[in-house]
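The protein record quoted for completeness.
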Amino acid sequence: MRVGILVLALLTLGGRRAAGQDGSVVGRDSAMAHARSLAGAHRTDQARAAYMDWLASHPRDAAAWRDLGREELRAGRPQAAERALNQALALEDEPNARERLLVARALAAPAVEPVFGGSRDSDGNTITRTGIRADVAPADGARVGIAAEHNTLADGLDTGRETAISLSGRWRPLAALNLDASAGVQQIESSSRPLPSATLPSADFRLRYQTPGNGPRLDLRGRHDALALSPALIANRVRRSEISAKLDLPVGPLWLRGMTRLGALDAGLETNYRRLFAGGIAVPLSVGTELSGQFQQLSYSAPTTAGYFAPRRAQVVEAGTYAEVEPLAGWSLALDVGGGMQRTAQFGFPMGSWSGSFRLWTVSSVALQPGRDLVLEVEAYDAPLAAVAATTSASWRWASASVSLRWAL
């Protein structure tokens, strides 16, 4: 009997030691499973907090430090990611952690980015763009910078130019919240206007929020600038003031999508108000990929002779797809493409017949090495609802391309 009791006591003691004197093995499995579940559900801030709670009492857990570094990168906090990954590598050398550390250092470093590009539309307007951007990180999750750009415009008869400089700031206080703002001046001049060049203010603000766990998504934007998209628009000093909102709501397996854009185009002696409303549904196919269908309607308050197309009403019905993929390691690709039917109604005339419409936006980014990213952006429209807000006819077509090299110092 005594022998049996002794054996039972030894087995119980051994079981406690197998689990750790304070149950740490079982506790670690539970803590890590909880943190990784939050990360997998895109609750990045909560996952970060869960990892930090565990590491506060278990600072020698290399795997937890590595996971924390990954989540800090997802949250847009490269300095915190660098600290976590340094802790992980001090405890255990691991190739993925070394690679993430290089990425974190590059994202935290000052950077410069030269930009070259151009565009052309079906009216023969061409624009050649050159510019440079530079920014630094005064705090984790924040960057401030300066940008300068010079554009040369031509339409076959007249020429124009735009020189712009702006200060910008980005702040990501939470993984789910992004704030972007910029303010500056534009100097514009057109050969078709005998008056001297004009220097005008510009400003842009954007807020993006996605509820953790793939909840509702909100995108708000306000901007004011001169529409330096053709010599005629420059000559008429057309300025845009606009606010927009986009909301995505999850309903079962679908997303309900609504969008509105309200603004005014001011040409000095005339102010024209424009309104855009859109609604549709989106079906997620996988992480970063969706199919969508939507209806959009654009209207102006009055006709104009200021150099842009102002129909009484324009409507577009389209199907589209959006995808973010990584075809190869170091190469990321975002694609937004749509096609459908469009029709317009001029002031004093009934709605016209339906015709085809098309839009395309894509960004391809190749990481030459950590902190050296070559980015190609291409955009094209064949629709009166183009995002540039300065179409000249119902059959207007436009395409642009730019290439930049972001170089972390």
User: Anything to note?
Assistant: The domain at 111-408 is CATH 2.40.160 (Porin). Helices lie at 2-19, 24-40, 44-57, 62-74, 78-91, 95-108, 231-235. The radius of gyration is 27 Å.
